Amino acid sequence: xxxxxxxxxxxxxxxxxxxxxxxxxxxxxxxxxNLGGVNHLLLLLNTKAQxxxxxSSVASRxxxxxxxxxxxxxxxxxxxxxxxSFDDVTxxxxxxxxxxxxxxxxxxxxxxxxxxGVAILLAVLIVAVVTACNDYEKEKQFRKLNExxxxxxxxxxxxxxxxxxxxxxxxxxDILTLEAGDRIPADSVVLSSxxxxxxxxxxxxxxxxIPKSRTSDPFLLSGCNVTAGSxxxxxxxxxxxxxxxxxxxxxxxxxxQTPLQEKLDDMAMKIGNVGIASACATFVAMMxxxxxxxxAYLDNTTVFTHALDAFIIAVTIVVVAVPEGLPLxxxxxxxxxxxxxxxxxxxxxHLQACETMGNATNICSDKTGTLTENKMKVVTGVFCGVEAxxxxxxAPAAKSSIVELISTCSTANLTTxxxxxxxxxxxxxxxxxxxxxxxxLESEWGGKGVDYRTIRASKNFGSVGGGRMFPFSSxxxxxxxxxETDTGAYxxxxxxxxxxxxxxxxxxxxxxxxxxxxxxxxxxxxTHWKKSDGGVVKMTKGKRDEYKVWIDRNxxxxxxxxxxxxxxxxxxxxxxIGNLESPSNLEESGLTLLAIVxxxxxxxxxxxxxxxTCQAAGITVxxxxxxxxxxxxxxxxxxxxxxxxxxxxxxxxxxxxxxxQLDAILPxxxxxxxxxxxxxxxxxxxxxxxxxxxxxxxxxxxHPGRNYKREKDSLLPGYQSEWLASRxxxxxxxxxxxxxxxxxALKAADVGLAMGISGTDVAKDAxxxxxxxxxxxxxxxxxxxxxSVYDNIRRFLQFQLTVNVVALTITFLSAVFGYKxxxxxxxxxxxxxxxxxxxxxxxxxxxPTADLLDRRPYKRDSGLISRPMWRNILVQxxxxxxxxxxxxxxxxxxxxxxxSRTHFTLIFNAFVFCQIFNEFNAREIGxxxxxxxxxxxxxxFLIIIVVTVVGQYxxxxxxxxxxxxxxxxxxxxxxxxxxxxxxxPLGFFMRLIPVNEAESSxxxxxxxxxxxxxxxxxxxxxxxxxxENIINLLVACGAIGAAYWKVRN
Length: 1049
Hints:
- With 1049 residues, this protein is an alpha+beta fold.
- The strands form four sheets. Strands 10, 11, 14, 15, 16, 17, 18, 19 and 20 form a nine-stranded mixed sheet that branches. It has an eight-stranded mixed sheet with strand order 8-26-25-24-9-21-23-22, sandwiched between helices. Strands 1, 2, 3, 4, 5, 6 and 7 form a seven-stranded antiparallel sheet that branches.
């Protein structure tokens, strides 16, 4: 960098390191003082607290001090995955058996005896290579997703402009602006702060929040969260040089199984046990045939050789039967879905959230920015008693109070994007509500010469003796600042005989509390109001009622009403402004109302359709908002959330309900207004039973000082045994959140959905999914993808169980009836490859379709295999078994020698093509018959089919001694493919068997829209589906017939 010479670089780096030693606050502070304090640090880094660094210096700073890309553990190599693929007992046994077969074969036949053993080893090698490639690609995808997850936007000051910057682009010397809820992106030193507290438990393990300030402890550590207050800070270490970077480099993230993976592991174990039993039975049957029946084809085979062959086939059966493809299918489907969901503005932080969201029964959504556009604009207002969007009638004393309040009682900033083709676009960094007020100042209302930045900077927030800021509180729905003001503008006025309020005049060091928040709440705290001439008069009951009517009238128009108030001369009511922890007492002591504004935030265009889609999918949508009840109801009706039979209530009433009373209201509770984060948490707990106290001790911890025996049934959220007794099952709840205090509700929810734009870092850390664009429509897409993952697994399961049933049964039956097993070890390993890895790739990557949202969610404990799936599995298995038994016992019908290699090759070929065509059938798990629909949207499926067909051709035609196959004539090829293709029309006819999913598999519907949405169009849908099925059948039969006729002729 230009300001640090090469010979000075190492010395300066050492200086920065000396003030950033882990767990050494006292020493770091002493070294900082020796360095000359914060001001000298800024000089060393060639940065300024008021303007930040120059954008032109970013690249050189990154070269000198490093980038802020946090180090990740070294990726696992492909070779490691390859070695891990052999970490399976059955595969190891099979390999040992193959080696024994190789040695025995070479002893018996030195020329060709090695073939079978080598072929088995090659087959195992191919399976291992394919598995390693899949796992390696999956690991790469998840590492990319984690990089996106770590990349957040923070407020930085560069070139005197505040803007949002990616954490990856931060450099040493950058000036940060941090607020409660933000994650600290790099090691920094505080320049100015206001009531700043930081939780460092992620690094130090200490659970308590630590106060920070420029004088006592100015060091902010990356990876920690700001829990209270605000500050500006200068970055002193980034990336691997930061405290969090040093720790993260030594961490390795262990993969955690999702609930669906655990359920599939259990199913795989059961299927594997069936396979082991079948393998043992097959081995015993083959040995009985050799020892007692003694067929002619075994005359030249010794007992040991036959026992070895039988053992290899038995082990191969176990390999085929154990469905290792089940967890692989989940992994592939989740990896595929999470990547696609990112394009749909859903960043998956925890994999289980993807599948859980598919069966969500409740979505508790915020209003602002999620249901609405979050494009706020002040459209009406009452300013010092004047209802007009103009400040012409306001005296300077009246207008200046409003201007100063809006400028200082805010953490938002306006930015300008310069565009050569269009007019400059003004953007908002921070709260959109506060941004709307700042835009008011820059409109005609504010007039020329009003610069909120200059006014805010003059108050010296965070500096010793400067202004104090108390950020927005979600519980109080307000925020405050205390600033030094020019009291000369304020004079005492008595009007119309009303009692006047004494206002300080011409006092040195006069301080004013500015307060803004929810209109009806602030209005209740006001005892006076300021007139347009700057005079202050008492708030009469009539005037208060007049304001209330104005608030209600505008709330009915879905406007957010914000009140602005002040309290002058607060230095006379508190001893030490600098050490004031909370302005609560001042806020309650009688404020002067300055203005009430109505802010418009229009409903998003897609919200009505998205809400209706959720309701049709059996999902109850509830609005949980901090807004006025009237405003919330107006928006909820417009969105279709609040229905005629729905209930809306405010948080203060909600908190007074008993668990039983709330349970009676829950089915129809659609709007919860003026709610706090604690209300949201209570609602989630009552819906899904999460984190409820399980004992008297836990209840008392939650309700200190209350009587357990007398009050346990009257206080929310209740307790676990009572909750379980009151319902058959809990709801699966998705909750949106954006604030720091939303963390508990996001954690308690089955799926926590944090807002990517408006959400704090604390909320994002507590969430399972981050909605990158804050839109409700993206939440619906998360539900769609979740259901897609669930159905993709069931598609694969339907396909695999069919192959399992047929392969194990035909091998066992052939042994029992004295036939040589038609499928040898190499053939079965090829079938295993088709069934597991390739099947998982083909069916685990099916994209979602809109009809997934036409059904209700499944219960938590519903089985993976539905009744229609069992029908499909059994019918296809029966057809394939009948076909293979026919081919096995009727070789002469095809002019083949019974038990010859050509005979068994025909059986093997027909069996494989049955699986290939049945893979098309497996794309539907219900009554719909659409085997070829949407193939263009799933290129993986087509690629797998082509690879399988090509692989089968080479195995049959070129396998020879290795696979024990022989080339087939064109007629036998046509016959094999034709027998397999019959699985397609059979897929239509089997769906005519009337089998419905068990009603008990689905979650129960609440009343209202969710219950009314189903049933009305079922007959129409069924008739339409039947017509489509018949058309698809005719198309399939026509294609098969045309292909068969063309080949035959």
